[in-house]
From TrEMBL:
Species of provenance: Stylosanthes scabra
Entry annotated with the keyword Lyase: yes
PANTHER family for this protein: PTHR46101, SERINE DECARBOXYLASE
Protein name in the entry: Histidine decarboxylase
Family classification: Belongs to the group II decarboxylase family.
Record keywords, A-Z: Decarboxylase, Lyase, Pyridoxal phosphate
Requisite cofactors: pyridoxal 5'-phosphate
Pfam families attached to this UniProt entry: Pyridoxal_deC
């Protein structure tokens, strides 16, 4: 919409932004200020960008604080992260300009909506008087849903802090259970330390993918473990995956697990090459760094 030049930055195995690549791109584009879109939970892997490292990279590349703007896209995980003890802190004490959270994801609003939190000076710079509603507004069209905030408010009131905390902990626990169960079944899988998104090798069979409604990207697929997911569901998913997999692999045309080391790290890959290396796999191999 703004017709600003957009540059993609590489990511690490975890899905986090690769700050070495970011630095190279910043140095190559020193003449322009930078608007950086960070992810607090990437879509495919749930990777959380390290705000401190990004700011350090900007400073080291000669970008003073008046020459960069950081937006934090926390669509799914922004509302979950504050409830995880020892999780990274996303705060306006750091040099970020804004953060967004979707209302229709974890909070379950029945209509698409979201919350943008920004600094007052940016809000004042952008908002204008909409005469006929006797209010100030920052939206492009000057219109917005009145229902969405009510649904959000209702949801927050109904669950309360403890309610949300319990839901978050349950999702994380179940995601870890799924990651372990896939690993025990010999299926390459990965789970970031602070995430409910389990990444694993893409199933060979399109029918299986579509029946379980799996989102795939290249050689990987993911399951986002939300509040409605039960242990029974996860058990039947993995059992069916393992059973189908043994049939796919029996077929002469497909005889080996996909190598997904590039996507999930060698430790989490169960292809014949990486498995043969006999790397001891801990019960829960949590990905934090590029491995
Ligand atoms: C990282 C990220 N940003 C943004 C979105 C989209 O958010 P919304 O549906 O609120 O536009 C998604 C997911 O759908 C996402 O994973």
């Amino acid at each position: 919409m703004c017709r600003i030049q957009c540059i993609k930055v590489k990511s690490l195995v975890s899905g986090e932004i690769d700050c070495n690549d970011l630095k190279a791109l910043l140095l190559a584009n020193k003449h322009n200020p930078a608007i950086i879109n960070l992810n607090i939970g990437t879509t495919m892997k749930g990777g959380i960008d390290d705000i401190d490292v990004v700011i350090k990279t900007l400073e080291e590349s000669g970008f003073s604080r008046d020459r960069f703007y950081i937006h934090c896209d926390a669509a799914l995980f922004g509302i979950m992260l504050p409830f995880l003890k020892s999780g990274p802190k996303i705060t306006f004490k750091k040099l970020i300009g804004s953060i967004t959270i979707s209302g229709h994801k974890f909070l379950g609003c029945p209509i698409p909506c979201g919350v943008l939190i920004t600094r007052l000076n940016y809000m004042n710079a952008l908002s204008r008087d909409i005469g006929y509603i006797a209010s100030r507004d920052v939206t492009i069209t000057g219109s917005r849903s009145g229902h969405a905030p009510i649904f959000l408010w209702y949801n927050l009131q109904k669950k309360g802090l403890m309610g949300i905390k319990n839901e978050v902990e349950n999702c994380i626990r179940n995601a870890r259970y799924l990651k372990d169960k896939l690993g025990d079944g010999g299926i390459g899988a990965m789970l970031n330390e602070f995430s409910n998104t389990v990444v694993f090798e893409k199933p060979h069979d399109d029918e299986f993918v579509s029946r379980w409604s799996l989102a795939c990207n290249g050689n990987i697929a993911h399951v986002v473990v939300m509040q409605h997911v039960t242990i029974q569901m996860l058990d039947s998913f993995v059992e069916e995956f393992i059973k189908s997999r043994s049939m796919w692999f029996k077929d002469g045309t497909i005889n080996k697990a996909l190598c997904i080391a590039h996507e999930v790290g060698a430790l989490n890959c169960t292809c014949s090459f990486h498995k043969a290396k006999d790397i001891p796999t801990p019960a829960l191999q949590l990905v934090k760094q590029n491995v």
